[in-house]
C-alpha cells in the first residue's frame, strides 16, 4: 500500500494516520472502519484553489458530495471555502443539516423530481444544472408559479470520451446526461431559458467522466464547448458567465495510477478557455470545477479485521475480512484495484501472496486479488488505502451487513462522525406482517384483462 497524506509507519511498526495509531482506532470504534485524514482533504482543497489563484481567474471549486456525503464532511467543505455539488434531495438535505450556505450549492442529476426541484427553489440554492427538456419544462412552470428566480447552468455532452471505465465515462454523445451539441438540442434549450422570465442562464456545464489522468480530456472538452459558444454568440448573442468543467480528476489507488499534479489539470483547462475566449473576443467566464474523488479519495482508508483463512494448495490463499462489497462495491462494479497492508505488522517483510475476500455470499465479493503481505492471521488488521470516495457513499446492507462507522483524524486526534449501524437500524422502517393490523382496501375496481 502506498502511504498517502499523513499516513506513516510509527515506532511500533503500526500504520498511523493523522498522528493516530490505527490499532487504537480499531480498539475504540471496531471494524470495518472508514478513517479520513482531514489534513489531506484540507491540502487538496487548498491545492485546487491555489491553482486557480495562480491563474488569476474567478473560480469556484465545488465539492461533489456524491463521493462522500455526511454532515461532518459538508461542514468541512464549508470550512474550506468550497462550493457544493448535490445530485439528490438527500444530498441537499444533508447540506441543509450541515448549515451549508445554500447560495454555494449546485444541483445536478438526470432525473430530478418535481419535489427535489421545489426543495431547491424554496431553499434558494446557487444554481440548478439543467439536464434535459423534461426538467426544463418543470422548472419553467414551477419558477413561474412560485414567482422565484433561479440561476441555471445547462449541462451539455461535449462528445469527448474520457479514457476511463465505460460506466464512469459521461462526456460522450450517447449518454443519459445532458443536452448533446450536434443535434441542436443544447441551442434549443438555451433559447428556451433565455426567453424565460424567471430562469437566468448563468453558464454551461460539462463533465466528461471520472478517474481521468490526462489533462487533454478537459482541454478537448473546453475546445468543443467553445465551438458551440461561437455559434451561440453569433446566433443568439449568448456568452456564458460561468464555464463549469465538472470533476473527474484521477487519484492513486495503486502503483499503476499516475495522477497529474492537480494544478496541471487546472492550468490546461484555464489556458484553453483563455485562448478560445480571446479568439471569440469574449470575456473569460468564471471557471468552476466539481471534484469529488480528488478531494476525499486518497484521504480515506478502510480498516478491516482479518477472519478466516482458506489455503488451496498450489492455487490460492483466501483471507476473508469483516467487510467487503457492502462497504466497497468498486472492485465488484468496476474491477477497481486496491492496495493494502497489515496495519499492525506494517514494517514486517511481505512473504505471502494472498487474495482478500469480503464476507458476502457472492463469489464476486473479492476486494483484492494477489496481494503480498507478511504472514497474517485471524485478528490482524488489514488497511485498504484510497477508499475515501464512493466507498461509504455506495455502501449497502446486502446480507444485512451493517454499514461501518466513519472517523476523522487530524493532529493526533480522532472523532467519530458517523456511528456504526446497529441491527436495530436494519429493521427501523419495517412493520410486522403478522401484527400490523388489517391491510388497507384498494380503491377502484380491479379489472381483469
Ligand atoms: C456531474 C458530476 N460532477 C462531478 C462528479 C465528481 O466526479 P469525481 O468524483 O470523479 O471528481 C461527478 C461524478 O462523476 C459528476 O457526475
Ligand atoms: N461511483 C463511481 C464514479 C461515478 C461518479 C458519479 N458520476 C466510482 O466509484 O468511481
Automatic annotation (TrEMBL):
Residues of the Orn/DAP/Arg decarboxylase 2 N-terminal domain: 39-296
Gene Ontology biological process terms from the UniProt entry: lysine biosynthetic process via diaminopimelate
PTM annotation (N6-(pyridoxal phosphate)lysine): residues: 66
Known pathway: Amino-acid biosynthesis; L-lysine biosynthesis via DAP pathway; L-lysine from DL-2,6-diaminopimelate: step 1/1
InterPro entries: Ala_racemase/Decarboxylase_C (IPR009006), DAP_deCOOHase_LysA (IPR002986), De-COase2_C (IPR022643), De-COase2_CS (IPR022657), De-COase2_N (IPR022644), De-COase2_pyr-phos_BS (IPR022653), Orn/DAP/Arg_de-COase (IPR000183), PLP-binding_barrel (IPR029066)
GO molecular function: diaminopimelate decarboxylase activity; pyridoxal phosphate binding
Amino-acid positions noted as binding substrate in the UniProt annotation, renumbered to this chain: 293, 330, 334, 362, 390
Keyword Lyase among record annotations: yes
Annotated keywords: Amino-acid biosynthesis, Decarboxylase, Lyase, Lysine biosynthesis, Pyridoxal phosphate
Catalytic activity: meso-2,6-diaminopimelate + H(+) = L-lysine + CO2
EC number: 4.1.1.20
Orn/DAP/Arg decarboxylase 2 C-terminal domain location: 34-388
SUPFAM superfamilies: Alanine racemase C-terminal domain-like, PLP-binding barrel
Binding site for pyridoxal 5'-phosphate: 248, 290-293, 390
Presence of keyword Protein transport: no
Cofactor: pyridoxal 5'-phosphate
The organism's place on the tree of life at top rank: Bacteria
Residues of the active site: 361
HAMAP family hit by this protein: LysA (MF_02120)
NCBIfam families, sorted: lysA
Role summary: Specifically catalyzes the decarboxylation of meso-diaminopimelate (meso-DAP) to L-lysine.
UniProt family annotation: Belongs to the Orn/Lys/Arg decarboxylase class-II family. LysA subfamily.
Assembly, per entry: Homodimer.
This protein's name: Diaminopimelate decarboxylase
Organism name: Salipaludibacillus aurantiacus
Biological classification of the source: Bacteria, Bacillati, Bacillota, Bacilli, Bacillales
